[in-house]
Amino acid sequence: MSETGIPSTRATPVPGHGLLRDRVVVVTAAAGAGIGGATARRCLEEGARVVISDAHERRLDRSLTDLEREFGAESVAAVPCDVTSEDDVRALFAAAAERFGRIDVAVNNAGLGGTADLVEMTDEQWSRVLDVTLGGTMRCTRAALRVMREQGHGVIVNNASVIGWRAQRGQSHYAAAKAGVMALTRCAALEAAEYGVRINAVAPSLAMHPHLVKVTSEELLTELTRREAYGRYAEPWEVANVIVFLATDYSSYMTGEVVAVSSQHP
């Protein structure tokens, strides 16, 4: 039982069912134990071939080694990428297409948070969060679209956040960036439809992983957990399951949507 009095039994991971068999998936910010890493793993479990990317090369190498050991070197590749660099983003999608022949799905997961009241926030803090979180998503969406337009098909899934809908102190920059990701997703989806490309987004709330624990106060984590209907945080793989759904043909008529993985949709 959670502190809210609501049962908080942990969910059980579901096995793969081949939902993405032979699809080629690119996932940014996929090194580590967060949503990106969980998404890469879930896509591999569903039979995809996956290109993982991250700005942290050492972590990326470790993640590649782990995934190769479990799923085989023929199913996974790694390409370092800083999503604030247009050259890096172009190189990522070119390398993925060259390695596997096409790109069926792009999961734009990279983002950067931080906490600062607006009155004390520097231009550098504001710009850095916006450049990684919104600018990076734009660059990756654009690069993926250029490949998918030529193919005549593809799916893009962006990682937004419920904070794009609701207010939270100290999060002006991050909330603005995530609201921007939502708007970008809706607008780009209208443009991409003529190419046979779907673009949607997920909006998680609290998906727990070790890095989040390091950079977030226990008080805030407790508060955010209490806001959830189940009285617990999401596991990263639970968010990844929704991303997988949006990547599959089961969501073939969905585009321009932002799907809340939380009870906090306004």
Automatic annotation (TrEMBL):
Family matches, as SUPFAM superfamilies: NAD(P)-binding Rossmann-fold domains
Stored Pfam families: adh_short_C2
Superkingdom classification of source: Bacteria
Name of the protein described by the UniProt record: SDR family oxidoreductase
Organism: Actinoallomurus liliacearum
Alphabetical list of PROSITE patterns matching this protein: ADH_SHORT
InterPro entries: NAD(P)-bd_dom_sf, Sc_DH/Rdtase_CS, SDR_fam
Coiled-coil residues: none
Family note: Belongs to the short-chain dehydrogenases/reductases (SDR) family.
